[in-house]
């Protein structure tokens, strides 16, 4: 049987007409696998006709590939020269162990490109925690000041604006295209490390599916390509033809030439939200934790008919609209009329499948969805309003200062994942196990709720002996359950008792003479050179409460 390997071609050369074999090898053509192998020994005409067809077919494919490759590369370069910019960012991240101060500033570089409306689109992680941003266009030695207009950390996208009219002279915007199909070629343009000039790398689309976005710790649709995406490439466009197929944003560590780009539907959702409301709106969620129903016994237990498919509801976020509609052990059969398979996927394009979470995430805030489900053997349909939902423990807190409150040397902060990240890259194993479990598993019970912890004790005579209670969760203040850090601050500041009692996790108790503790607080702040006993957000809240009481 004929194969497409070079070894097979060499073997066939001695059996077939020398002119044809030489031509085939010289042009680099390959054989398909025909269902009927022609007889070489007796039927030269049949053999010749077979190769004429093979040569013509392969020639057409080769010409298409060659023409597309050359054209695509040149178009990508031409478009990039007047559209792609290099971004210089100076940033400073907060120190969550010492929330009243920042870490030392650092300088990073990335890429971006011009979109309609005289705006620059880039990655959120390129400008995260920024203090100063400059951009430079291709062929220009001048750097221009840029301002961050909007940031979506979940989708790792940001929009910059440049006020200087000089910057926009000769600049062209790029248009957004569609999701490329598998094996379609894309050209990634940007300013990766290793040089100062613009760079173009080519690759093909390998996969399209929801992927974990490293920066925002969320799962949204992404496109995997076999082109290298290195530091500095982030924010650059992936061009297909003369339009943008996505934005380069991350790679797969430990693997070679596996990169990811943010697809056009996610980009359009981000931009549309900003244009409609003037700010980033986020991506919707149903607030559900679902289990696949691939096991036959599980489907029989929940009275699913043979033609039914769906997923089992395990948990429901109390803050979601679904909390009052859906119930635990419901089987979700359809979302907006689209059947959900037993593995949680829905049809996507040509014979591809994607998790139904993608349908949810592409909904606009306050949009409704029709959900068909199976409950106790009966089918029901409900309308659910979708909203972006925030976890009880925030997974990121970019571009904002952390909250804190200090009383008698006791430092109280809300539990966040960035706080746990201060324990190092292996924070999951090195951070306190109880706090880690709370951060990853606990669901909010009410809006505005926070888990407040005693992060550390600034030693003084007033708090001696309490240093071992650090890293425990705060439960009550004077018998009142706290809702969040602001609530704790109000309870402590407005305490009218002689003694202040703070109940912690693991049934631990802190008791302080209130007046002595107030005096000690000023002494401790001065000793540790801390400018304020509370963060700016709490201080603003306290000042507004004082003004209201004065009126």
TrEMBL record:
An example Gene Ontology biological process: proteolysis
Domain of life: Eukaryota
Alphabetized InterPro entries for the sequence: DEGP_PDZ, DEGP_PDZ_sf, PDZ_sf, Peptidase_S1_PA, Peptidase_S1_PA_chymotrypsin, Peptidase_S1C
GO molecular function, one term: serine-type endopeptidase activity
Protease Do-like PDZ domain ranges (all copies): 393-537
Any single Pfam family the record assigns to this protein: PDZ_3
Keyword Heme: no
Keywords carried by this UniProt record: Hydrolase, Protease, Serine protease
Family listed: Belongs to the peptidase S1C family.
PANTHER family with a match to the protein in the record: PROTEASE DO-LIKE 10, MITOCHONDRIAL-RELATED, PTHR45980
Protein name according to UniProt: Protease Do-like 10, mitochondrial isoform X1
UniProt gene name: LOC107941989
């Amino acid at each position: 049987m004929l194969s497409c390997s070079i070894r097979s071609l060499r073997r066939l050369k001695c059996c077939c007409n020398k002119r044809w074999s030489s031509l085939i090898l010289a042009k680099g053509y390959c054989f398909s696998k025909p269902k009927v192998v022609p007889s070489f020994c007796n039927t030269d005409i049949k053999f010749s006709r077979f190769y004429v067809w093979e040569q013509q077919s392969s020639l057409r494919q080769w010409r298409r590939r060659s023409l597309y490759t050359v054209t695509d590369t040149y178009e990508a370069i031409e478009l990039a020269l007047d559209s792609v910019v290099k971004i210089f960012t100076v940033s400073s991240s907060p120190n969550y162990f010492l929330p009243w101060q920042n870490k030392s500033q650092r300088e990073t570089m990335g890429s971006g490109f011009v979109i309609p409306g005289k705006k620059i689109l880039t990655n959120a992680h390129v400008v995260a925690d920024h203090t100063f941003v400059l951009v430079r266009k291709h062929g220009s030695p001048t750097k221009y000041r840029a301002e961050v207009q909007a940031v979506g950390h979940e989708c790792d996208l940001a929009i910059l604006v440049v006020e200087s009219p000089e910057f926009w002279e000769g600049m062209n915007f790029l248009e957004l295209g569609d999701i490329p199909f598998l094996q379609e070629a894309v050209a990634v343009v940007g300013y990766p490390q290793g040089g100062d000039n613009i760079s173009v790398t080519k690759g093909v689309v390998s996969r399209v599916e929801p992927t974990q976005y490293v920066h925002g710790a969320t799962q949204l649709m992404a496109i995997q390509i076999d082109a290298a995406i290195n530091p500095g490439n982030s924010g650059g466009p992936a061009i297909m033809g003369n339009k943008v197929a996505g934005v380069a944003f991350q790679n797969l560590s430990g693997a070679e030439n596996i990169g990811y780009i943010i697809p056009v539907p996610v980009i359009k959702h981000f931009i549309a939200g900003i244009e409609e409301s003037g700010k980033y709106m986020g991506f919707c969620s149903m607030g559900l934790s679902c289990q696949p129903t691939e096991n036959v016994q599980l489907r029989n237990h929940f009275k699913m008919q043979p033609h039914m498919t769906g997923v089992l509801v395990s948990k429901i976020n109390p803050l979601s609209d679904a909390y009052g509609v859906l119930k635990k052990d419901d089987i979700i059969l359809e979302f907006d009329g689209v059947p959900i398979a037993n593995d949680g996927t829905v049809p996507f394009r040509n014979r591809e499948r994607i998790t139904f979470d993608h349908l949810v995430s592409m909904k606009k805030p306050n949009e409704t969805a029709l959900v068909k489900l199976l409950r106790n053997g009966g089918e029901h349909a409900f309308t659910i309003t979708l909203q972006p939902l925030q976890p009880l423990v925030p997974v990121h807190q970019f571009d904002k200062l952390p909250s804190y409150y200090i009383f008698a040397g006791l430092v109280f902060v809300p539990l966040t994942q960035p706080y746990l990240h201060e324990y190092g890259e292996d924070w999951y194993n090195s951070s306190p196990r109880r706090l880690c479990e709370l951060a990853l598993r606990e669901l909010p019970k009410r809006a505005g709720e926070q888990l407040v912890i005693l992060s550390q004790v600034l030693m003084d005579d007033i708090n001696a002996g309490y240093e071992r209670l650090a890293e425990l969760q705060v439960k009550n203040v004077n018998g009142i359950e706290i809702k969040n850090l602001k609530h704790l601050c109000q309870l402590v500041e407005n305490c009218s008792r002689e003694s202040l009692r703070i109940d912690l996790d693991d049934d631990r108790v802190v008791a302080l003479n209130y007046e002595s503790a107030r005096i000690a607080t000023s002494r401790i702040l001065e000793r540790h050179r801390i400018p304020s006993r509370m963060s700016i957000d709490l201080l603003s809240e306290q000042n507004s409460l004082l003004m209201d009481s004065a009126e």
